[in-house]
Structure formats: C-alpha cells, structure tokens
C-alpha cells in the first residue's frame, strides 16, 4: 500500500445520499452523489427503509461512475473506505456491505470510519493553499446531526463537546417548513421565504441558552421547543383569522436557529482558547448562518472555514479523505468483521474491530 499519497475510494451511505468519492492523498479526483431526497419528500423526512433500498440501487452505478470520472482502475486503489456509523442502520449496512465486497474482491485494505469526523476531513480536500491548523472547533449541522466537536488531531483526538438533545437543526428547518406549508427539504425553502422578512418580528426561543440551562448544556442544542413555538404562533394567528406573515415567521425562526448555533460555537472557541471554527453539514447552505458566522468569528478573532457546498453535504470524498489521512498516519486497516453502528461515538475515528453496536 502506498502510504505517502494513497489512492482511496470512499463510500458514504449513512442517510439519504449514496456518495462515492475517490481521492489521492489530499487531492479530490471524483465525488459522485446520488440522493433519494425526492423519494422522501412526500413523507416530510427521510424514511430509513426507503433510503436503504435506494442505496442498494444506486451503489453499483455510483461506484462505476466515480471510477470512470477519476480515471483509475480497481487495481490501482490503495484502500477502500466506508462510513460505518453513526447514521441509519439499514442505510449504513448497504455501504458497509459494498465496501467489504469490494475489499474482498480486490484484496485491498478496508477502512471503516466515522461519518462525523469525515465531515471535518472534507476540509483537507480544500486547503486553498493554506493548510488548516489544529486544534479546531467544528460545528456540524445537517438533517441528521447537530454536533459541536473539539478536534485536536483529525486522526487521533476528537472530542464531542455537545449535540442536540432532540431534533437536528436541519430537521427543525424541515418541520417548520411543513408548518408553513412549504415543501421538503425545508431548509432552502425557509431560506428563500425569509429573504423579505424581518428577523426581529417575532422573538422565538433560543433552546438551552438560559443561564439555568447553560451549566449542564453549554454546548448542547435543542430545537423541538422552537418548532413548537412556531407551530403555536401560526395556530394563534390562524385562529384569530389573521394572514400568517410567512416571510417574518421564516426570518424570525431562521434567526433563532442561527443565533444559537453560532453563539455556542463561538463560546466554545473562546472558552477553550481555540481560534478556529470549521462548519460542515447541509445546513451550512443557509445564507444567514454563513453571514452571522462570518461576522461573529471576525469579531472574536476566530478563523472561519467553510468547505465548498459539495463537500459540506454528505459525500464519499470526505470518507476517502479521512481514510487517506489515517493511512498516511500509519494506521492499520479495519477488520472485515466490523459492523455498522448507528450510534458510533465521535471519539471512534476509525472502527478497527468488530463492535457490538446496532
Ligand atoms: O448534510 P445534508 O445534505 O444531509 C443529511 O442531513 O442527510 O443536510 C440536509 C439538511 C436538510 O434538513 C435541509 O433542510 C438542510 O440540510 N438544508 C438547509 C439549507 N439547505 C439544506 N437548512 C437551512 N438552510 C438551507 N439553505
Ligand atoms: Zn452528515
């Protein structure tokens, strides 16, 4: 195996994106993504069984497409990497099964890695000429997660500072969009609806931000109370026969989510003396989140990094990039007995042996 500049194929299937990425060291060669998002639209959220079936259908063609785009052969690969958790069990199993089959048939080493740490690894592929230093705080926000991490070393030391205790941030966007009669996925819809609205029109609650919550949940998030507050506000307006000011509700809701996300992330930077913040996950597409994060990071003297959007949403390139880092750091391959683990903790950057997770 070439450990200097390894050619790695990465498979990501933890949620509704079948992502295949190929990297050589820190260079991105291909990043194909097939999403089953449209199939979930009528349910208003990702349906695990539907996602797993879609992965099964997309897996083979996606691998072929990524190989063709990268212009490499299976023989040339140095390793096969896969997300083994956290995520939806059935969805993960499709990717893990495919990766094991590829590793077995090609005789290449197999690396089972952590999805959340992969989001951080995505940044390695986009150094824009300036390698990003560690430690860094990472805020990962998507339909499936809202996690605040302290990354001291990408391949050796990642700590979970906090996460959502109920809904993920993207999930909150999706649920509130539904309340406002907007289609799934709700994030882009709310972002658009909020454009002409007044973010100060309604003061929606900031979850886990009161002094009494901050002691035990300084870096944790909660969005279900906010969603309920929006639902009540809309109901009250409708009961009173008023027209619901969608733009104001969307802008005020978006402001509440963004305020909490950025406040807690910058607090972590300040408390821990870490002058770097990395953003990842699909919610990073949010125009207001990018704006507020940029403003407050600058004010706090924190360097802000946001990888290009195609590397922020779930993708296989980030998994390949993380595995390439592990290989370059001399880490040994995972056992082919590794299972999918829906609740894999972020401290397990690579799963080396069979785990008892679900
Ligand atoms: O990372 P991602 O593509 O994957 C999964 O969660 O699987 O994130 C999707 C989430 C959805 O909940 C979607 O509503 C949200 O990201 N999202 C946004 C925006 N674009 C996508 N949320 C807020 N504002 C946006 N512009
Ligand atoms: Zn993700």
UniProtKB/TrEMBL annotation:
Q: Report the EC number(s), separated by commas if there are several.
A: 2.3.1.234
Where substrate is bound, by residue? 140-144, 174, 187, 191, 286
Its function, per the record, reads: Required for the formation of a threonylcarbamoyl group on adenosine at position 37 (t(6)A37) in tRNAs that read codons beginning with adenine. Is involved in the transfer of the threonylcarbamoyl moiety of threonylcarbamoyl-AMP (TC-AMP) to the N6 group of A37, together with TsaE and TsaB. TsaD likely plays a direct catalytic role in this reaction.
Sites binding Fe cation sit at 115, 119, 314
Query: Cofactor note from UniProt?
Result: Binds 1 Fe(2+) ion per subunit.
Q: Which UniProt keywords apply?
A: Acyltransferase, Cytoplasm, Iron, Metal-binding, Transferase, tRNA processing
Q: What's the catalysed reaction? A: L-threonylcarbamoyladenylate + adenosine(37) in tRNA = N(6)-L-threonylcarbamoyladenosine(37) in tRNA + AMP + H(+)
Q: Which residues form the Gcp-like domain?
A: 28-320
Q: Which Pfam families has this protein been placed in?
A: TsaD
What is this protein's record name?
A: tRNA N6-adenosine threonylcarbamoyltransferase
Q: Which NCBIfam families match?
A: gcp_kae1, T6A_TsaD_YgjD
Gene from which this protein is expressed? tsaD
Main subcellular localisation: cytoplasm
GO CC annotations? cytoplasm
What cofactor(s) does the depicted protein rely on?
Fe(2+)
Which N-terminal residues, if any, form the signal peptide? none
Q: Which GO terms describe its biological process?
A: tRNA threonylcarbamoyladenosine modification
Localization, per the record, is: Cytoplasm
UniProt family annotation: Belongs to the KAE1 / TsaD family.
What is a GO molecular function of this protein? tRNA N(6)-L-threonylcarbamoyladenine synthase activity
């Amino acid at each position: 195996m070439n450990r200097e500049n390894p050619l790695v194929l990465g498979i990501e299937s933890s949620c509704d994106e079948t992502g295949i990425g190929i990297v050589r060291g820190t260079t991105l060669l291909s990043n194909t993504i097939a999403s089953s998002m449209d199939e979930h639209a009528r349910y208003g959220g990702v349906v695990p069984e539907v996602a797993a079936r879609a992965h099964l259908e997309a897996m083979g063609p996606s691998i072929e497409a990524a190989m063709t785009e990268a212009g490499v052969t299976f023989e040339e690969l140095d390793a096969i990497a896969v997300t083994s958790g956290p995520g939806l069990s059935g969805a993960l199993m499709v990717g893990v099964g495919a990766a094991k089959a590829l590793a077995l048939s090609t005789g290449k080493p197999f690396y089972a890695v952590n999805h959340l740490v992969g989001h951080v690894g995505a940044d390695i592929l986009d150094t824009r000429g300036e390698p990003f230093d560690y430690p860094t705080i990472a805020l990962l926000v998507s339909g499936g997660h809202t996690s605040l991490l302290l990354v001291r070393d990408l391949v050796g030391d990642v700590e979970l500072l906090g996460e959502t205790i109920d809904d993920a941030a993207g999930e909150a966007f999706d649920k509130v969009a539904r309340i406002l009669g907007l289609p799934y996925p709700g994030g882009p819809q709310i972002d658009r609806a909020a454009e002409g609205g007044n973010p100060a029109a309604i003061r929606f609650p900031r979850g886990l931000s009161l002094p009494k919550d901050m002691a035990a949940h300084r870096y944790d998030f909660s969005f279900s109370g906010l969603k309920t507050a929006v639902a009540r506000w809309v109901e009250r307006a409708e009961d009173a026969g008023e027209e619901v000011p969608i733009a104001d509700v969307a802008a005020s809701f978006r402001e509440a989510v963004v305020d909490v996300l950025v406040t807690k992330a910058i607090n972590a930077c300040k408390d821990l003396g870490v002058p770097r913040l990395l953003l990842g996950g699909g919610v990073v597409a949010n125009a207001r989140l990018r704006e507020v994060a940029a403003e407050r990071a600058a004010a706090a003297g924190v360097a802000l990094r946001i990888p290009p959007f195609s590397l922020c949403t779930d993708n296989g390139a980030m998994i390949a990039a993380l595995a390439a880092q592990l290989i370059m750091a001399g880490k040994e391959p995972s056992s082919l007995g590794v299972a999918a683990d829906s609740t894999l903790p972020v401290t397990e950057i690579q799963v080396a042996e069979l785990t008892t997770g679900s």
